[in-house]
Design brief:
Number of helices: 14
Strand content: 5-15%
Structural class: mainly alpha
Number of strands: 7
Bound molecules: zinc ion
Shape: elongated
Largest sheet: 3 strands, antiparallel
Helix content: 40-55%
Order of helices and strands: HHEHHEEHHHHHHHHHHEEEE
């Protein structure tokens, strides 16, 4: 007998296959309302029909019943059937006229009967990332500075802050997952600084163009350690600039330049442009929606770091 998991793998359409894999991984559980409402529920490899030890019944090749109704009608008697019947007798019902479906998350149960799409989606994302091998890679990379686990909740919070636009966020996301193709993986020198690359982190934290650009945009004094260069500092506005720089450098990592100086100049220009366009777009929106004060509080300066001013003619003027 094949399990649902095996059946899903042979679906040809990638969209439906991936959707079902994700749904399957949610391990939806069920509290039956009444027995008649679960007649069609499968009893093999089920998330809610469990043996005395709390384990699902494994697939087997004999003619054992496939759903609750078949089990109720089954007259055979062998250890598996007896164990299944015992599970059926011990089943707890909510006595409502509908079944309750729920999934278990780190923050408690999510009832699917009234859950929002957002809460289910965020749970799916969390589960998809269960094999977080990049966390180990970063920890090994930073071992000279970090002797305990990294606080990934805080790291992702900095990146997903509303201060960062979606293009900036998605570049940081790719960088931190370390799956991207790079000069290091290609066994080549870095296209930007022309130096030998020793790891996939080169473009994210070590490239000379990156270091020069953070000096050029005057945020170097905030990025004082390898760990901060990897994930950002505590000043959100500094991170706003830093993540823009990283986005540009990351996206241009395979561009060919005549020499180091021309790579540097081009990247300085592109970083300033990227930051200015982002600020202009937000300022325009703030003006339209009467939220200019909020824009000014967020983007002009934070603590001692000044990013920009608004001129009398309502233009954004970068100070860095
Ligand atoms: Zn480089």
């Amino acid at each position: 007998m094949t399990t649902n998991k095996e059946r899903i793998k042979i679906i040809k359409n990638i969209y439906y296959r991936e959707a079902l894999i994700s749904f399957n991984e949610l391990k939806v559980k069920l509290i039956p309302g009444q027995r008649k409402l679960i007649h069609n529920e499968p009893i093999i490899a089920s998330n809610f029909f469990l043996d005395a030890n709390g384990n699902p019944f494994p697939p087997n090749t004999d003619n054992s019943p496939k759903n609750i109704y078949e089990l109720m009608k089954c007259t055979e008697s062998n250890p598996i059937i007896r164990s299944m019947k015992s599970a059926l007798i011990n089943m707890v019902y909510s006595n409502q006229n509908k079944n309750t479906f729920f999934i278990e998350s780190e923050n408690g149960e999510i009832n699917l009967n009234n859950a929002t799409f957002k809460s289910i989606y965020s749970e799916m994302i969390t589960r998809t990332n269960t094999n977080k091998e990049w966390e180990t890679k970063w920890l090994n990379y930073l071992e000279s500075e970090e002797n305990h686990a990294l606080d990934w909740t805080t790291i992702w919070k900095k990146i997903h802050s509303k201060i960062n636009n979606p293009h900036v966020i998605s570049a940081q996301w790719e960088i931190l997952h370390l799956n991207f193709w790079s000069s290091f993986k290609a066994n080549e020198c870095c296209n930007l600084c022309l130096e030998i690359t020793n790891n996939n982190m080169h473009i994210a934290t070590e490239c000379k163009v990156l270091i020069d650009t953070i000096h050029e945009l005057k945020i170097n004094e905030y990025l004082t350690s390898k760990t901060i260069l990897a994930f950002g500092c505590d000043n959100q506005l500094v991170n706003f600039v830093f993540y823009h720089i990283r986005k540009i450098i990351f996206r241009l990592r395979f561009k060919n330049f005549q020499n180091y100086q021309s790579a540097r100049n081009h990247i300085f220009y592109r970083c300033r442009l990227s930051i200015t366009l982002d600020l202009e777009e937000r300022f325009l929106w703030a003006t339209k929606t009467n939220t200019r004060t909020s824009f000014e509080n967020t983007f002009l300066q934070q603590n001692n770091f000044e990013l920009c001013q608004i001129t009398e003619s309502n233009k954004i003027n970068l100070i860095v």
